[in-house]
Amino acid sequence: MRIFNLLFTVFILQFSECGNEYSNTNIPENHLSGSLQSTSEIFESNQGSPGENEDTGGAQQPLFHEVTMDLSRLDEEVFEIEEDEETGGVSSGLIIPGEEYYVNKVVYGTNVLWESDGEWKCTHVEVHINTSKILVIIGYENERNLEYKGMQKHMGGLWYETDDFDDILVDMMEEPDNLVSKSMRLRRCG
User: Fold this and answer.
1) Signal sequence span per UniProt (predicted)?
2) Same domain, 34 and 70
3) b/e map 91-118, b = 16+ CB within 10 Å
4) pLDDT value at position 58?
């Protein structure tokens, strides 16, 4: 019994507000009163790791949900879609993930257009479509940089990477008979 009292006293002193380095920890009151818990349980439940949400009492709740953006079938519950800006026969759209989501991969059906290596996340995608081509510009960032990757596809062809976004977009607008039908615009689901 004496050992229990000694351990309990050390525990209380360690986490009490005596001006020590632990006085600013965010320990809920129910940890210090009511049922006794071990020091390790309290320490683990108050780590505040990036994947935890304080409102759930330390339970693992991801702050962001990892998603794949499929440009051939967009989920309106996950992505904000600003589209139908048509200039020179080219239909353009901007796709942004919702606040609680981050994009780790951008695909068009079964074709992977961009995939994160773990350090980068996609911030937005621009899509430009006319009757003969699709131009996709993927914006992605890490803690220090914002980068872009362009992917182009001729109708019925294969996807390939390109750096000439502006030139391709101008060429798409200058092509004859490039009116985009409604069926070629961004497809949504959900």
Assistant:
1) 1-18
2) no
3) bbbbbbbeeebbbbebbbeeeebbebee
4) 56
Residues 6+ apart with CB under 8 A from 103: 67, 68, 69, 97, 116, 121, 122, 123
Specify burial of residue 171 (Cβ count, 10 A radius: 0-12, 13-18, 19+): middle
Of 60, 29, 65, residue with least CA distance to 45: 60
Highest mean pLDDT out of 22-26, 42-46, 73-77, 123-127: 123-127
Q: Are residue 95 and residue 137 in the same domain, yes or no?
A: yes
Q: What is the residue type of 162?
A: T
- Gap between the Cα atoms of 168 and 52, Å rounded: 44
Q: Smallest Cα–Cα separation from 39: which of 56, 55, 22?
A: 22
Q: What is the DSSP letter of 40?
A: H
What is the residue range of 90's domain? Answer: 65-189
pTM of the complete model? 0.61
CA distance 156 to 9: 75
Q: Taken in order 45, 49, 55, 60, is the CA torsion positive or negative? A: negative
Q: Domain boundary residue among 56, 83, 99?
A: 56
